[in-house]
């Protein structure tokens, strides 16, 4: 028997293969861990699909913790000048551009729930009346492209303070009007460059880019930047996310 034949064979379901690619690539390459080290750390020998699945999720959650320890909370992401803005900007979603949701803007309300004192919904006008912050930053998509854009809106911290959110909670979750959903750690929610963007390039957010309200934070990968936000909630229960639940690392800091 050659060494090759003795080595346990990984038989992966398509879903698990996707997880292996998405999670393993980021975690193992970034941390420099080998398969052997991973099996030592997790107690799984990776001999069957079930184990692989367990390892990947365990590693990913462990990676979330390490990333959040390393996150300074105040260190600013790089900003750019107006002449560096990418034109045209790039659209991305889990569906093609012609399926961008139609939103009834005049009747739009942002819902707020979970561990907050004030659960009244917000109109766009009310959001526009809160202090605004602007940024020219780079959005980086996990699929291998990036683009520089200008967004402005309400710092999420300001919003959370206004609704009397329990800032000791672990998570802030987002529900979107295209059934997308995501969540972030509280430290990132309070970061000065994390904003609820109302404007893109100095004008109200266009449909493609997440109207009427999107999350914009240059400290996390593109898929964490939820568009078309309809509801925000504060919780200690892990909310996951659309891609996160399919294997993308939840923290996904940059
Ligand atoms: N509601 C919603 N938000 C979303 C997505 C989505 O499919 N639906 N896709 C994410 C991904 S993968 C990326 S890269 C960015 C793309 O934002 P853009 O269209 O402004 O470039 O939006 C993120 N936010
Ligand atoms: Mo993305």
TrEMBL record:
Signal peptide: none annotated. It comes from the Bacteria. InterPro entries: OxRdtase_Mopterin-bd_dom (IPR000572), OxRdtase_Mopterin-bd_sf (IPR036374). Residues 99-243 form the Oxidoreductase molybdopterin-binding domain. Transmembrane segments: none annotated. PANTHER family: BLL0505 PROTEIN, PROTEIN-METHIONINE-SULFOXIDE REDUCTASE. This is Molybdopterin-binding protein. It comes from Rouxiella badensis.
């Amino acid at each position: 028997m050659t060494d090759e034949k003795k080595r346990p064979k990984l038989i992966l379901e398509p879903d698990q293969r996707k997880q292996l690619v998405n999670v393993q690539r980021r975690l193992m390459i970034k941390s420099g861990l080998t398969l052997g080290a991973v099996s030592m750390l997790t107690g799984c020998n990776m001999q069957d699909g079930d184990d692989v699945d367990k390892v990947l999720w365990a590693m990913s959650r462990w990676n979330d913790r390490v990333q959040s320890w390393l996150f300074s909370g105040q260190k600013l992401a790089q900003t750019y000048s107006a002449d560096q803005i990418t034109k045209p900007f790039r659209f991305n979603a889990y569906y093609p551009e012609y399926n961008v949701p139609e939103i009834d803007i005049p009747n739009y309300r942002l819902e707020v729930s979970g561990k907050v004192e004030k659960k009244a919904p917000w109109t766009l006008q009310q959001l526009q009346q809160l202090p605004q912050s602007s940024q020219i930053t780079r959005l980086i998509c996990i699929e291998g492209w990036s683009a520089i854009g200008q967004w402005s809106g309400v710092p999420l911290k300001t919003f959370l303070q206004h609704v009397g959110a329990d800032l000791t909670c672990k998570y802030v979750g987002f529900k979107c009007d295209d059934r997308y959903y995501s969540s972030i750690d509280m430290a990132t929610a309070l970061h000065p460059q994390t904003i609820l963007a109302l404007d893109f390039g100095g004008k109200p957010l266009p449909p493609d880019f997440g109207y009427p309200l999107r999350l914009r934070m240059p400290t996390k990968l593109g898929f964490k930047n939820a568009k078309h936000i309809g509801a925000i909630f504060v919780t200690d229960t892990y909310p996951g996310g659309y891609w996160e639940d399919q294997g993308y690392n939840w923290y996904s800091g940059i």
